[in-house]
Every structure is written in C-alpha cells, then in structure tokens.
Amino acid sequence: MARAGVYNNGVLAGVLEQQAANRYVFTYSDEYFTKNNMPAISLSFPKTTKQYKATELFPFFYGLLAEGINKDIQCRLLKIDEDDDFTRLIKTAGEDTIGAITVKELTEAR
C-alpha cells in the first residue's frame, strides 16, 4: 500500500492511500478535520465527511499531474510507468504545484 501526506499550505490535511490498483482512500487527519478554521482541501472533499473512497485516483489529485510533454519527461527521468498516476503524484507534486495543495510520499510504518 502506498501512502502520501496531503498538505494545505504546508499543514498536514490528511493522507491519501492507494490500497490496491483500483482502491483509493483520502482521510482527513483528526486535527485538521476538527479545526473549523481549516478549509476543505477541495470542493470535492468537503469537511462534512472525514474519509473518501474511490476506484480510481480522485480527479482533484489527477488535476495536480503534468500532461503532455511534461508528463513524458517526468516519466522518463523518474523511471515511472506512464499509467501509474499515483506514483507520479507522490514523486512530482511535493513542490511547486498550482495552488495550496502539495502531496508528499509517506514511507514510515503505519
């Protein structure tokens, strides 16, 4: 299972997991979820629900990925399968994303 921290302006908002090839889960952290002054990371992840599940990478996170020639370059340089969107996300969305959200690989034991 691959895991990534999802940060809003540097504050850990939650964890995104790829539990299987067709199972993705985003869970707000307890601290972030309970703070009323912290906004939802996206309109598609309102803070009315703590956990979201999907059978493919959520469109919001897919929108953080490069396309076209930039995707080709990233995949070639980082040796990532072009169809492995989750790995591309955790390897490329940790810095310099459009907007406040960044995604960083979590490697520590759960």
Description:
The chain has 110 residues and is α+β, with helices and mostly antiparallel strands. It has one domain. The chain contains 4 helices and 5 strands. A 5-stranded antiparallel sheet has the order 4-3-2-1-5. Strand 1 and strand 2 form a beta hairpin. The radius of gyration is 14 Å and the shape is globular. The mean pLDDT is 93.
What is the alpha-carbon Rg in Å?
A: 14 Å
Percent in strands: 25-35%
Mean pLDDT: 93
Domains, number: 1
Supply the helix-strand structural class: alpha+beta
Walk across the major sheet and give the strand order: 4-3-2-1-5
Q: Count every helix, treating DSSP H or I runs of 4 or more residues as helices.
A: 4
Chart the SSEs and their pairings.
Elements: E1 2-8, E2 11-20, E3 23-28, H1 30-34, E4 51-54, H2 59-62, H3 68-78, H4 85-92, E5 101-106
Antiparallel strand pairs: 1-2, 1-5, 2-3, 3-4
